[in-house]
Amino acid sequence: MKEKIIRVCDAKIASKGGNVGLSFYAFFANKNDDPELLMEVAHWWIMEMKLDHFEKAEKIRNLVSAM
Hints:
Layout lengths: L1 H15 L4 E2 L12 H14 L6 E2 H9 L2
Antiparallel strand pairs: 1-2
């Protein structure tokens, strides 16, 4: 999941610039095909990191890269 988050952040930054924001839903398909992983990422985003619904892609990339 870490590599996917970094890949998605890099793609968003490349296409929309350094100020682009995203939510944790950006890392998942529109189908709910892996609810356990979705909940794990949502818990990390909301409960552990105390992030807002939308955060800068650069911030998320840096957080995940440091893990």
